[in-house]
Amino acid sequence: MDERTQIDGLPVRGVLQRGKPMDELTWLRVGGPAECLFQPADEDDLAGFLAALPEAVPVFPLGVGSNLIVRDGGLPGVVIRLGRGFNAIRVEGARVTAGAGALDAHVARRAAEAGIDLGFLRTIPGSVGGAVRMNAGCYGSYTADVLVEVRGVTRDGRWTTLEAGEIGFGYRSSRLPEGFVLTEAVFEGARDAPEAIAARMAAQVARRDATQPTRVRSAGSTFRNPAGYSSTGRDDDPQDLKAWRLIERAGMRGATLGAAQMSPVHANFLVNTGGAKAADLENLGEMVRKRVLETSGIGLEWEIMRVGVE
Q1: How many domains does the chain have?
Q2: Is residue 263 predicted with pLDDT exceeding 90?
Q3: 188 lies in some domain
Q4: What is the pLDDT of residue 235?
Q5: Domain at 288, CATH number
Q6: Residue 205 in domain
Q7: Mean pLDDT, range 211-233, rounded to an integer
């Protein structure tokens, strides 16, 4: 019995699809088909599916695809996407528990209404699961700063709770177990007046919209800032090593490859201007990395996750 037959024969209450085009599920609108897409009905459906799924079948948890390039050859194995049954948000004291499918912006707003400051999440275009996995952050605050614990299902279908200190957070990264499907996260933020938090969030949104290409097909920052980078904020300071400044100095702001472009608004944003292939986006990114290395001696690392078959 091959893996395809084993997957097709598994009892599920959610939706199990073959060959789902991934360009329909990612913000960059690129990517070949998933071998199999599973959208579980609830937590028990997810755990039962993973427990029965053959160990050799790879699993890829997918959020809203906001920081992701799926290559044109698609994704082998099973892509697991958590939907409406995994987006609840509840508040208890100074803690906010959010399902992995809840949007970061919704969590920030709900927390603010309760007088809890998770405002940095307001400008992060993704879901809670992705925010934890990538240690998402902005304006000096990171998911690791406010995370208490996460709950999820291991690759073999067992429920597990991990405290923040067990996740191995780094800059724009974490070390969650391979195949682990995060289902909810618990955050704890500082207390403040709801109107004060709302005002700060509004200011951050305005700042983001003024400096980033928020109304195009982008996946946010393409490359991580170099380790130990300095940021003086001076355009003429050669010691300012933020990724976008290195890209700009390398002459790659606005660079194109087919319909892929490094945004002329923000040099560290990779954009699909319409009809780009995943290969166009990834190859343009590699061109940028090569040029930055040649001009500055610094090797940029991808922040966008790239997965699948070329």
Answers
A1: 3
A2: yes
A3: yes
A4: 55
A5: 3.90.78.10
A6: no
A7: 83
Let me know if residue 201 belongs to a domain. Answer: no
Give the residue numbers annotated as catalytic, written as ranges.
172, 221, 303
**Residue 88, phi then psi, degrees to nearest 5:** -70, 150
Q: Are 78 and 96 in the same domain?
A: no
Q: Which of 252, 228, 255, 256 is nearest to 242 (CA)?
A: 228
Strand partners, 79: 37, 60
* DSSP H/E element including 48: helix 43-52
Integer distance in angstroms from the first to the last C-alpha of the chain? 27
Query: 112 and 79 share a domain?
Result: no
Please report where in the chains the tokens 């070390």 appear, as a residue: 175
Beta strands in 2-94, from DSSP E residues, in sequence order:
15-21, 33-39, 59-62, 68-70, 75-81, 89-92
Query: Are the CB atoms for 121 and 129 separated by under 8 Å?
Result: no
Q: Could you list the residue range(s) of the whole structural domain that residue 259 is in?
A: 215-307
- Is the pTM here over 0.85, yes or no? yes
pLDDT digits 0-9 by tens, 46-83? 999 999 999 999 999 999 999 999 999 999 999 999 98
Of the CA atoms within 13 Å of residue 176, those in its CB half-sphere come to 28
